[in-house]
Amino acid sequence: DTGVSQNPRHKITKRGQNVTFRCDPISEHNRLYWYRQTLGQGPEFLTYFQNEAQLEKSRLLSDRFSAERPKGSFSTLEIQRTEQGDSAMYLCASSHSGGGAFVETQYFGPGTRLLVL
Amino acid sequence: AQTVTQSQPEMSVQEAETVTLSCTYDTSESDYYLFWYKQPPSRQMILVIRQEAYKQQNATENRFSVNFQKAAKSFSLKISDSQLGDAAMYFCAYLARWGAQKLVFGQGTRLTINP
């Protein structure tokens, strides 16, 4: 399977704990995105990387959130001191950009569902 | 800021019939892309169809087609010959051609297919 993969698929944690999610993009894709989706809503953009550079961060990404893509391949999203409001589906997507303004389609992973008790 | 609105939280259609899902958007940009994504229950989001704003011709992918009205900022999805496997949440999404490559999604429409 060469699609976007995410681990874990489900995570239950207690308020105040730290959690880390991993995303493995499609292998030739140089762009990687994180979105958050709450129940009954569309996904909301959190951040994106081109190779290892984090190019944009949403205001939704508070200082408790940090994302990395150290070698331009997989990415991790860490939430520190989790709050109940962090409960959501965290989606990862990837695309390939060959430069210029040509837009490539973003392909999504299955998501990590987080429940903070 | 760009916004996307899907005014139909739920829709249903008989199997083999045709259904149209509505989407409107707001942007000051002239060059952008529009997408319809499908999210089946407990499964990942997949692309259904994509439209470039500079193209006047409406995109078509097999049973799926769009009605893109740029002046009205409207982007509806028509599903012909509906099948049970089409049941899902459908999201309309906007992407500016220039600047941050972030999709802006609508709230979604839950489509039910009645056998």
Structure description:
- The complex is a heterodimer of chains A (117) and B (115).
- Chain A is built from no helices and 11 strands.
- Chain A is an all-beta fold.
- The mean pLDDT of chain A is 91.
- In chain B, strands 2, 5, 6, 10, 11 and 12 form a 6-stranded mixed sheet that branches.
- In chain B, 0% of the residues lie in helices and 52% in strands.
- Chain B is mostly beta strands.
- At the A-B interface, strand 4, strand 5, strand 9 and strand 10 of A face strand 5, strand 6, strand 10 and strand 11 of B.
Number of strands of chain B: 12
Number of helices of chain A: 0
Biggest sheet details of chain B? 6 strands, mixed
Helix-strand makeup class of chain B: mainly beta
Assign a percent range to the helix content of chain A: under 10%
Low-confidence region ranges of chain A: none
Number of continuous helical runs of chain B: 0
Quick structural overview:
The complex is a heterodimer of chains A (117) and B (115). Chain A is mainly β.
Q: What is this structure's SSE topology?
A:
The complex is a heterodimer of chains A (117) and B (115).
Chain A (H helix, E strand, L loop, with lengths): L4 E3 L2 E4 L5 E6 L6 E7 L6 E7 L2 E5 L7 E4 L6 E5 L8 E8 L11 E2 L3 E5 L1
Parallel strand pairs in A: 2-11
Antiparallel strand pairs in A: 1-3, 3-8, 4-5, 4-9, 5-6, 7-8, 9-10, 9-11
Chain B lengths: L2 E3 L4 E5 L4 E3 L2 E3 L5 E8 L6 E7 L7 E2 L2 E6 L4 E6 L8 E9 L7 E2 L3 E6 L1
Parallel strand pairs in B: 2-12
Antiparallel strand pairs in B: 1-4, 3-9, 5-6, 5-10, 7-8, 8-9, 10-11, 10-12
